[in-house]
Design goal:
This protein is of the alpha+beta class and about 350 residues long. It has six helices and twelve strands. The strands form two sheets. It has an eight-stranded antiparallel β-barrel. Strands 9-12-10-11 form a four-stranded mixed β-sheet. It is found in: Cell outer membrane.
């Protein structure tokens, strides 16, 4: 049984082992440096295996498919014979799982450059090639994974009279590491199960209690209406903040007012934390500028914490629009309109 038939049989066994599970995927592009160990076609004038290198870029485009594009090169020397092959192409990986261990079947097309230099031939030509193989990815961390594959590279040689044959068949083992440029999106938290309580017995008639003191509700301000993109300077006029300042001036007993800034999950965690702090501080300074005692105000930033919505859109513009409710400033212990009774 030749190597091509062995690869096809192994691929069939992997397919029979189970269908792809619906797991979360990381839509980020990743880069893959690799080491290649190649057995060349003996018709090129060499038959000793040798090692080369490669670089690819990849991306998960759906639940079942990854694409990878890149190049590799391997050089062989045997006595007075030298052979060099450079590959430039694209692979499609049929992912059989999205778990930590992810077997796949690969198919690819591209262009190979074969250079042969020996006492009988001196030729260098570009030719198309097709490739098929099997492999796996194994997660190491949320952004790092190991990839290995075994493939056959079938070249359709142009000017075959110069090479002395028409079809080449190189066998290649590739081992590389994948680094995703962005971490995978956070999984949404499951909703808590509803708690069913037994109905309480009817209470005995009692005299109505005196009206309780009012409590104040939280006021949420949309950051996109208060700040320019990626800025922490309040856009004026700011009527919502003016209403809050008027409410605080009307009731000086309200203290410990907490101003909390939040951002969405786009960008690095440390940058978003600092941006949320600067925006909360900007609101505090605005209220102080309206005559409110700064000792009554406390500004904090919570970055990406406590998201209002969870979004997984692939397009950046749609994702930014969906995440808008997460970009906000909350002012706690103050009401602009009517106090809410307990």
């Amino acid at each position: 049984m030749n190597n091509t038939k062995k690869i096809a049989l192994a691929a069939a066994l992997l397919c029979a082992s189970g269908a792809t599970l619906a797991q979360e995927i990381n839509p980020s592009w990743y880069i893959q440096p690799s080491v290649n160990h190649v057995k060349p076609d003996a018709d090129f004038g060499v038959d000793d295996r040798d090692t080369g290198g490669g670089l690819k870029f990849g991306k998960a485009v759906s639940q079942n498919w990854d694409i990878q594009v890149g190049a590799s090169q391997t050089r062989f020397e045997q006595g007075r014979s030298e052979y060099r092959q450079t590959l430039l192409g694209a692979d499609a990986l049929l992912m059989l799982s999205r778990e930590r261990f992810r077997p796949f079947i690969l198919f690819g097309l591209g262009v190979e450059r074969d250079k042969v230099n020996n006492p009988l031939r001196n030729v260098e030509k570009n030719s198309p090639y097709g490739t098929v193989g099997i492999g796996f990815q194994a997660s190491l961390t949320p952004q790092w994974s190991l990839q290995a594959d075994l493939r056959t590279v079938r070249g359709f040689l142009r000017d075959d009279e110069l090479f002395g044959f028409k079809r080449s068949n190189n066998k290649m083992l590739t081992v590389g590491v994948n680094y995703a440029f962005n971490p995978p999106p956070a999984a949404p938290m499951p909703a808590p199960a509803p708690v069913v309580e037994a109905p309480a017995p009817a209470p005995e008639p009692v005299a109505p209690p005196p009206p309780p003191a009012p409590r104040f509700q939280k006021v949420t301000l949309e950051a996109t209406k208060m700040f320019a993109f990626d800025k922490a300077v309040v856009i004026t006029p700011a009527p919502k903040l003016d209403e809050i300042a008027a409410a605080l001036q009307a009731d000086t007993t309200v203290t410990n007012v907490e101003i909390t800034g939040y951002t969405d999950r786009l960008g690095s965690e440390s940058y978003n934390q600092k941006l949320s702090e600067r925006r909360a501080m900007a609101v505090r300074e605005y209220l102080i500028g309206k005559g409110i005692d700064g000792n009554r105000l406390r500004a904090i930033g919570k970055g990406e914490a406590n998201p209002v919505v969870e979004c997984n859109q692939k397009g950046r513009a749609q994702l930014i629009a969906c995440l808008e409710p997460n970009r906000r400033v909350e002012v706690d212990q103050i009401t602009v309109e009517v106090p809410v009774q307990r």
